[in-house]
Structures are given as C-alpha cells and as structure tokens.
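Lay summary. Proteins are chains of building blocks that fold into shapes, and those shapes determine what they do. In this project we predict the shape from the chain. Here is one chain we studied, written as its sequence of building blocks.
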Amino acid sequence: MRRMDRTTLAEFLGDAVVYRNLTPLDPRLPRYAELADRAGLPPDIAPRKSDPGYARVVAELVRSAARLCGTSGSVERILFVGDTRGNDATAFGRLCAEGGWPGIGFIGCEELAEPAAWEAWKDGDRVLLLATRWRLLDEIDSFCGARGFPIDARTAVLIDLDKTAIGARGRNDRAVDRARIDAIQRTAEELLGSAPGWDDCRALYDRLNRAEFHRVTADSQDVVAAICLAIVGGMIPPEAVGEDGLANDLCERFGGADRRIGSIPGPVGDILLHCRSGGDAGVSPEFGAFRRNEYEATIRRMGRLPDGVSRERLLAEEITITEEVRAAALRWRDRGVTLLGLSDKPDAASLPADALAAAGYRPLHRTEARVIGGAD
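And here is the predicted shape, written in a compact code that computers can read:
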C-alpha cells in the first residue's frame, strides 16, 4: 500500500477551486456574474456540469486563470482528469469545442477485476482515455508527449474533485456515499423527528443513485436525498422505487401524486414538484438542510481515524486524497500549467457556515485528509 500522512487539496490547487456556483474561491479570479456576462449567459443561475452553458463559463475561467499564471491567457490545449463517462467526459468534449482546444481526457476508475489498461477514444483532435486503474495516470505524460501534446505552461489541467481527487471511484467512493447517507439520516431526524436505520437508508440510497434513475434525478444528490426522505417519512409509498427506476412521470407510481406531493412541506415537496412538472433536475431547488449536513458528514470522514488502522477500513470509512492525482498535479504545477479544481457540490456542502467556521471548520479543499494510492 502506498500511503502518506495527511495533506489538503489546496496543497496542489491552492484556492483555484470552483464549486457549483462557478465562482472561484481565489478572489483574484472573476466571479460567476462576470464569467456569465462574457459567456452570454444569465447571471443568476449557474449551469450544471451536464449543461452546454457550463463549458462556456469554464472556458472563460480557464482564460482568466491562465492570465493569472502569467501566460497571457494563451492556453493551447486542455487536459481533463475525472471519473465519470457521462458528465465528466461530456464536459471535457464541450470545453475543448468551446475553446477550440485539442484535449486529452483521463477518466479513471479502480476496476481490479479487469486488467490494468486504458481504452482510447479519438474524436478529431480530442482523445478520451477510459482507465481501469488510477495509477495509469502516472503514464499520461509519456502518452501526451508521444502525441506532440506537451503538458506545459500552455496547457490547462482541469481536475474533478469528487470521486477523483478525493474518494477515488472504485477505490474510495463508497466513503463519499457513506457521508451522504449520514447526511440524509441527520436531515430526516431534523425534519421528521426520527432517522431511518442505516442499512435501510443505504439500500434506498443505493437504488436511487443508480443510472436508471438519472432520467428523474439527473444524478442530483438534492433530488436523491429528497426522494429518500419522502419515502422514509411515509410521504410517498416505497413502491414508487421500482426495479426499473422511477417512472418519467412521477404520478404513475405515486398515485394521486398531484395532491400528495403538493401537501409535502418545505424543500422536499419543492424538489418533488419540480421533478413532477418535468423541470430540468439540473437546476432543481437546492436541498439546503441536506447539503449543510453533507458538509459536516464529509468533514467528519476526513483524516479522523486513528493511525494504524487497516487500509480496508480507511478506504471504507474515510474520504481520502488520491495519491496518483496529487502526484501528477504537483508535477504539472512545477511546469507552470494552469490548474483548476472543479466540483459540482454546492457551497453549503463545501464551505462551513459561519458558526462552524468560528469553531475551526475549514473549506473542504483546505481540510486535511490522508493520501492513499493503489495497492497493485
């Protein structure tokens, strides 16, 4: 096992981190309203990673960050590191097209049942690498160099945070999900007066988080959490969650759902009504109580276990920084690349509220966590 003590994402990203509102935490970079104006988008609602407008805003941000790095905004190529073949790969392709940049995208997942390899997909001057080990990121420099794609001061490197830089997919992502389940339970206790059992909540969350439910949830954790609470709170029947996923029209399974959903108070009802009306789940109402609890639950799972615990327990219970991503980012930073960290988490799940900040809590990217690499 490769393991070091602790560090933070800020070690290699600084404050060049962008959460869901697309306003960088580095005050030297433009806020979303300015970026949206440059991109010709409304200034009030930031697009999600799955939306076409997201690439337009991030392209403007890349140019601004490059100027801050002293390259006069002259980015010539994009390297993207993520974990999903859906949102990450789509955002990568759109970003390259938006900026007119060639690009290489690395999509990692620890799939130990498969040989250590990557599958390359080429589309014009873009290459997407689907890797079965995170350690294959060590080989990306030679891959890029052999294709006349230097990772240097003319390159912008965009690193996804969730289940990439932390909670590596296939290795440590279940710890991220555990934090979300902890948050759902805490929110249920606050709003309903009692929390579901952990095993029951986990099983329900696991089902709702599957790809076949994305047509309703759009992979939004706010929507997943709202449906979980609606079911455990008896607001909608458990059979609403079928083996084949939620119906496109929620009324099909909810039975009298217009009346029933309309009677659900607060953010849970707002979010379900949004789904029921066919609204874009990408801009569904944020579930603030859940997201605030998610922040605390996430921080509680970073660097808190005692020294000497097993690798298996660390990966199951703690959210760790991915050693391969950290090592590559430090290497690229020393070459003068423009580095940006991207996360689809809202601020409430990423930054401490005032009372917590006063108690010593720090932003997610400045909270210490263990660094763990692959075992093979």
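What the prediction tells us: The chain is about 40% helix and 15% strand.
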